[in-house]
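Minutes, project check-in
Item: structure for the 341-residue chain
Input as provided by the requester:
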Amino acid sequence: MRVVEVPEGGGLRAGERPEPEPAVGQVRVRVAACGVNHLDRMIAEGTLPGPAPRPRVPGGEVAGWVDAVGGGVDAALVGRAVAVAPYLFCGRCEMCLGGRETICRSGDILGLGCDGGYAEAVVVPAQNLVPLPAGLDPQVAAALPLAAATAHHMLVDRAGLRPGESVLVVGVGGGVASAGLRLARLMGARVIAASRAPDKLARAQADGAEATVTLGDPDSSVARQVRALTGGAGVDVVFDPLGSVYWADDLQALARGGRLVTCGAYGERAATTDVWLTFAKELSLLGSYGASRRNVAELVALTAAGAFTPAIAGRLPLAEAAEAHRRLRAGEVYGKLLLTP
């Protein structure tokens, strides 16, 4: 089968490998599409905070059709359209038993801990499958399991967003942030979108943002812009996939009792926290790691019902994975790029 892999020296290389055979408890999925994520780019560029095994076929955001099963797996799954929940979990530790699969004590991620979806087929644990309802295009479903499901976990499980609340979405245009904007609107929240790029702010308004602010404005901080838009009150939730880059501003933009939720650490891993502000305003600082099968399944159901539509920036053939990474690195993408083997 055709693959694109990260070789020992880094970068991306197209090649061929034997088709993998599913072991006990596994299935083989014929890939309809694989979402492109910053995680894939960081594996290829060697910029992860920890080591990444090489060679490795990246790609954690997969949907397609089951075409083979291993021992102990129901053969009736063959031919079934599925999405793959990308966070690998044991199902036995206290975190898994408590429904927190993404922080499983022995967990990993498809495309990092094992070969992923930059290929014509991929082997995954059967327990990670999320069946697709009839009529849901697997290529559309491939835009859901990682970035969009992460946004769902951030807003629903971690921040506990409620109808009528206000949300600042930082870095709109990225896969997580564009999904977060659409989900926040679906949940009945008022959204302020933040980006450096005027074209992405225009897209965000078309997606339902009530107002926008400019990141990196030399004349006005994000917090100052947000307070001007909220009568000085600030927002109930700051949704920030970037992490430390705008941390101090995020805190200043929060209303009393507000919540800051983040799923990333782009730039420096360390950030300065105003402790006085944090306790005096009873702020909550929330980390959010990935998404569970339940998050993926709920998003699949919302998408199949027409309530949620992922922002798909484009579809490229598998051989153009390097171009997809270039676009992602350059910030040219609004939403999700898909590779289609």
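Outcome recorded: The mean pLDDT is 95.
No further action items on this chain.
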